[in-house]
Amino acid sequence: MNTPDERIPELICELCRQFYDLGWVSGTGGGISIRGEAGIYMAPSGVQKERIRPEDVFLLDGTDLSSCRVLRPAKDPSLRVSECQPLFYNAYRLRDAGAVIHNHSIHAVLAAKMAAPDGGEGVFESRDLEMHKGLRGKGCFDVVRVPVIPNTAREAQLADSLERAMNEHPDVDAVLVAGHGIYVWGRTWQQAKTQAECFDYLFKVAVYAKMAGLDAPPARS
Ligand SMILES: [Zn+2]
């Protein structure tokens, strides 16, 4: 289900509008990147994500992931490449991702706070949910563990701790950032989107359960 390159900029705009409606990319937050044949497509930084147009999307060199080389800039010269670029590149480099999504979902923020109340490192755990099946390699009775890393003043400063968390949790395609949001990736944009939705569902269940005063399910051995 490869998406032709000429469709990808419009697809990024369409996904940004959907993510905005979910409350994932409000206030210019969040971002998305998709790998195509010609390189890596990426939304610009610090703009209202629901209003970007295809000509605002950058095309970056996907052959050299050690630096950020712009192959085709956004038409508007005032636009900059996403602040998330080094974080997105981690997923392309370490996991051979086909797409990466970064969002500021309130469910992700609250789930990270429950797992790491002091804003430091932690691990969010989910058990016994059918929606685990939407995650790579997981069944409904598998425990899903998502690492939490502390936030930093600038997005790009997350790169090292994100890489460490990715290496420590090879079975999961997401990293939560305390007080901030989540990075999720997949082999295709469809898988990245599905997984982003499933993780958000898991976080929502945990948050709603806590609000309802329900006990967390007992750990299975
Ligand atoms: Zn962010």
Characterise the protein shown here.
The chain has 221 residues and is α+β, with helices and mostly antiparallel strands. It has a single domain, classed as Class II aldolase/adducin N-terminal domain (L-fuculose-1-phosphate Aldolase), CATH 3.40.225.10. It has helices spanning 8-21, 85-95, 106-115, 159-168, 189-211; strands at 31-35, 40-42, 58-60, 70-72, 99-103, 122-126, 144-149, 174-177, 181-186. The longest helix is centred in the last third of the chain and has 23 residues, at 189-211. The protein is globular and about 50 Å long. The structure holds zinc ion.
Summarize the structure.
The chain is an alpha+beta fold and 221 residues long.
